[in-house]
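Incident log, support desk, overnight shift.

02:14 A customer reports that sequence design results differ from what the structure should imply. Their input is reproduced verbatim below. On-call engineer (initials T.W.) acknowledged and began investigating.
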């Protein structure tokens, strides 16, 4: 069983790299942000709370995040392991996680802030089917329309310049120190996230001692 944490600033490719690992190794991708977005889309009480927080560019409170993570991992559908992204984001969450679960490694995706801004502000989302796009590398076939369902694409509420500035501040002040906690107790692998997704995935595999990545034809 393999259990990994993947960390990195918004736009560093955590979701993409997690999915590549999971698809190849039969791991479960646990994306805390996706769980919260599901609640927002389905208008749950948690979703209303999360929407207010995300619109302000703030991070969701520790109690709620830990509750969501605990409930998700208690599902035990990760027979071969998991990759969790979007968690932990501060010292308290890291302590909770390390006390509750053994992990095999921490993947830290490093990306310069100017590239973060370029990537994040180019993201688009289909509010109907949830398909993600990036105007840099994954443009829709028809400008502004989802390839799957044809719905008009939108910018995520948390992908505005103001919200991004707030998230970068939070990451530098609260999340970066988490890496130091992990470095004392766990294996942290620093990975350059600026090359192509395939190259980044290969670097992750090499750092974790996993079989080479073979992109699909």
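02:41 Re-run completed on a clean worker. Output:
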């Amino acid at each position: 069983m393999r259990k990994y944490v993947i960390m990195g600033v918004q736009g560093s490719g955590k979701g993409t790299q997690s999915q590549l690992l999971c698809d190849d190794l039969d791991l479960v991708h646990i994306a805390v942000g996706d769980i919260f977005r599901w609640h927002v889309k389905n208008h749950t009480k948690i979703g209303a709370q999360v929407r207010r927080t995300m619109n302000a560019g703030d991070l969701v409170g520790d109690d709620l995040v830990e509750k969501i993570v605990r409930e998700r991992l208690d599902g035990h559908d990760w027979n071969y392991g998991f990759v969790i992204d979007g968690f932990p984001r501060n010292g308290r969450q890291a302590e909770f996680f390390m006390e509750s679960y053994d992990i095999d490694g921490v993947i830290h995706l490093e990306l310069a802030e100017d590239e973060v801004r370029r990537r994040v502000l180019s993201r688009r989302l289909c509010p109907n089917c949830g398909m993600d796009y990036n105007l840099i590398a994954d443009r829709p076939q028809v400008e502004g329309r989802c390839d799957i369902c044809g719905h008009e694409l939108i910018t995520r509420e948390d992908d505005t310049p103001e919200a991004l500035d707030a998230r970068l501040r939070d990451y530098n002040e609260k999340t970066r120190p988490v890496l130091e906690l992990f470095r004392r107790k766990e294996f942290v692998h620093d990975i350059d996230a600026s090359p192509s997704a395939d190259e980044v995935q290969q670097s992750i595999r090499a750092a974790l001692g996993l079989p080479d990545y073979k992109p699909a034809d």
